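Q: What residues go here?
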């Protein structure tokens, strides 16, 4: 008989929480439409969270299509999603892509799995890094779609697939991303956002920091936190996501609920934003997965916060050294 020391992390968590033997390999789920089929392709036919996620996708797509803030050329962007649905103890790890039905109408497509929160890690940062490994598996699966013809080929290819939660060492992956983040120079990052002058960059960040102080001081605001934080072109989005999660980690710990995350897939050409949300998801939040995310009104956009926040000036150094080190000198602390 194996000792606890020899058990996988998922098995041990299952024993600790009384859930029996935890699964290391989760069934692959899928939901959405593909141009070669007239109907939905779905691998989510089970009650509970898988069905709730597909319903959230449907309601969100419809809300976005009808939204006055949708642009005519709006598309679903390739997106990595770590979603916590209301009143559940499980997380959805998903990758979402733009797609169409057989008539050319917008219908996004997602691969996803559902897993226990604890199976991914101890906090939002570890969970994001673990999810990233799973989402790279989804990227490979999505690449196979180009080889599929009509009919039942989709189900023959994917219906019995599973996704491993194990992968390589979590702490090693986190260390690698931190090392990548540590190579981002603060001044170069701000210049990539169009903030060329050190004084201008410091003033921009001071406005964001003032808003973070309000989140810290007002629990009701923190409980409804939904913020979009910039990702600069030319730098790893995954590494930047780690920086923002570490910057917000004291407040996220105080919030009492695990946040859910929307992070665009890597794009070296376009600046964009990641979205960190503590409140429960709304159907309208689907717009954050689209090219119209900057028009979405139910999140606070960092660029607008920096311009709108007023009050006593906070001490912010001009950007220098690594962005990671600079951000850690200006971390919002819980009360």
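A:
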């Amino acid at each position: 008989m194996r000792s606890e020391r020899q058990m996988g992390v998922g098995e041990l968590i299952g024993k600790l929480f009384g859930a029996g033997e935890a699964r290391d390999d989760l069934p692959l789920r899928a939901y959405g439409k593909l141009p070669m089929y007239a109907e939905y392709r779905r691998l989510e036919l089970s009650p509970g969270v898988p069905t709730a996620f597909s319903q959230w996708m449907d309601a969100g797509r419809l809300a976005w299509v009808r939204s006055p803030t949708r642009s005519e050329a709006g598309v679903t962007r390739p997106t990595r999603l770590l979603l916590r649905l209301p009143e559940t103890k499980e997380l959805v790890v998903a990758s979402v892509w733009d797609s169409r039905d057989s008539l050319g109408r917008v219908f996004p497509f997602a691969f996803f799995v559902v897993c226990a929160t604890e199976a991914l890690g101890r906090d939002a940062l570890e969970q994001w890094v673990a999810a990233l490994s799973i989402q790279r598996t989804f990227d490979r699966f999505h690449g196979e779609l180009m080889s599929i013809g009509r009919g039942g080929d989709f189900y023959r290819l994917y219906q019995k697939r599973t996704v491993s939660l194990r992968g390589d060492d979590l702490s090693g992956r986190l260390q690698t991303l931190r090392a990548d983040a540590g190579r981002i120079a603060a001044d170069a990052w701000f210049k990539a956002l169009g903030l060329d002058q050190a004084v201008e960059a410091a003033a921009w960040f001071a406005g964001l920091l003032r808003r973070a102080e309000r989140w810290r001081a007002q629990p009701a605001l923190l409980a409804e936190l939904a913020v979009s934080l910039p990702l600069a072109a030319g730098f790893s989005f995954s590494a930047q996501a780690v920086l923002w999660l570490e910057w917000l980690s004291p407040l996220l710990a105080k919030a009492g609920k695990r946040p859910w995350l929307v992070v665009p897939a890597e794009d070296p050409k376009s600046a964009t934003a990641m979205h960190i949300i503590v409140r429960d998801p709304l159907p309208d939040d689907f717009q954050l997965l689209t090219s119209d995310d900057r028009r979405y009104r139910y999140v606070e956009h960092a660029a607008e916060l920096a311009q709108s926040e007023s009050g006593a000036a906070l001490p912010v150094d001009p950007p220098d050294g690594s962005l990671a080190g600079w951000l850690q000198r200006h971390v919002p602390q819980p009360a």
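A: Context that may help when evaluating the design: The chain has twelve helices and eleven strands. Confidence is low (pLDDT under 50) at residues 1-22.
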